[in-house]
């Protein structure tokens, strides 16, 4: 039997979207975090297996010339012992560099719980990276597109307000925020030995490489991404989870459903 493992919170988070409107130049800034081997956990007793690999594959897609082709200087990758709370918070300061035509991405793969992520040195009780700390980094960014992706148990607990109350209506209307989570707030998110990844991340990357393109226009919209990933994750989890528990991804935020998120050759 292929092993499967639940991720108490693996937030494979913000991704490589594209604002194609008006042909405006844009820059992507991304923070990619993945933790399989925690300082205070042990294999089979808290550690994960594929969270770090998911983060590395996500980073590779972002920076690959055949993928999103984001300059490496604009992407911070933190895995394993590098992914301390201090380092993650420092990396998130990168988002403040974004201009209005830019986009920001946060990707976290690892443990967590309701309202928090667990950095490398966490005991499960402290220290914790709170959702509020991640949201604050979003609020400080002027980027018109902000994306958070989560391959995580209880990932549905993450809620991101569009903008602080001080933002003008014009700025609000021009900002797209997408939160795409691997499971509902009361569900486990699972990584499978037969895939060598979290199931959500596996289908997310397949989708963005073109498999979600239903109308063959070489572009993946938010709705196409959601439909493809949700359908495949739900079907796979029902088939291969020993308990046959369905894992249900969810997407929400402030964005048009036909917003282009990725293009491919």
Describe this structure as you would to a colleague.
The chain is globular and about 45 Å long. With 265 residues, the protein is of the alpha/beta class. Strands 3-2-4-8-9-13 form a 6-stranded mixed beta sheet, with helices on both faces. Strands 1-10-11 form a 3-stranded antiparallel beta sheet. Strands 5-6-7 form a 3-stranded antiparallel beta sheet.
Sheet having the most strands: 6 strands, mixed
Shape: globular
Structural class: alpha/beta
Over the alpha carbons, how many angstroms does the gyration radius reach?
A: 17 Å
Assembly annotation: single chain
- How is the largest sheet built, in terms of strand order? 3-2-4-8-9-13
The overall strand count is 14
Helix % is 25-40%
Tell me, rounded to a whole number, the average pLDDT.
81
For the termini, the CA-CA separation is: 37 Å
Estimate what percentage of residues fall within beta strands. Answer: 15-25%
Helix-strand pattern:
EEHEHEEEEHEHEEEHEHEE
In DSSP terms (H or I, runs of 4 or more residues), the helix count works out at 6
List low-confidence stretches.
1-6, 8-25, 160-173
Compact summary:
The chain is α/β, with parallel strands linked by helices and 265 residues long.
Which SSEs are present, and which pair or pack?
Elements: E1 4-7, E2 28-34, H1 51-63, E3 75-79, H2 85-92, E4 103-109, E5 112-113, E6 116-117, E7 129-130, H3 131-139, E8 145-150, H4 169-173, E9 176-181, E10 189-192, E11 197-198, H5 199-211, E12 219-221, H6 222-240, E13 250-254, E14 260-263
Parallel strand pairs: 2-3, 2-4, 4-8, 8-9
Antiparallel strand pairs: 1-10, 5-6, 6-7, 9-13, 10-11, 12-14
Helix pairs in contact: 5-6
């Amino acid at each position: 039997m292929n092993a499967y493992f639940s991720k108490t919170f693996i937030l494979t988070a913000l991704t490589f979207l594209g604002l194609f409107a008006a042909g405006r130049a844009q820059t992507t800034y991304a923070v990619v975090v993945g933790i399989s081997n925690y300082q205070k956990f042990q294999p089979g007793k808290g550690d994960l297996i594929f969270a770090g690999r998911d983060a590395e594959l996500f980073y590779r897609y972002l920076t690959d010339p055949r993928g999103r082709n984001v300059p490496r200087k604009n992407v911070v990758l933190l895995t394993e012992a590098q992914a301390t709370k201090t380092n993650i918070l420092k990396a998130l300061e990168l988002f403040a560099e974004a201009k209005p035509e830019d986009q920001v991405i946060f990707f976290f793969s690892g443990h967590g719980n309701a309202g928090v992520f667990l950095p490398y040195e966490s005991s499960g009780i402290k220290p914790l990276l709170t959702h509020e700390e991640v949201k604050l980094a979003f609020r400080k960014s002027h980027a018109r597109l902000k994306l958070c992706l989560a391959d995580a148990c209880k990932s549905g607990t993450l809620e991101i307000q569009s903008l602080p109350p001080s933002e003008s209506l014009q700025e609000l209307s021009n900002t797209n925020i997408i939160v795409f989570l691997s499971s509902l707030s009361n569900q486990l998110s699972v990584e499978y030995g037969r895939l060598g990844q979290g199931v959500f991340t596996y289908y997310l990357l397949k989708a963005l490489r073109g498999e979600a393109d239903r109308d063959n226009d070489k572009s993946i919209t938010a709705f196409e991404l959601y439909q493809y990933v949700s359908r495949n994750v739900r079907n796979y989890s029902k088939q291969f989870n020993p308990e046959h528990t369905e894992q249900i991804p969810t997407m929400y935020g402030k964005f048009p459903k036909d917003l282009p998120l990725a293009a491919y050759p």
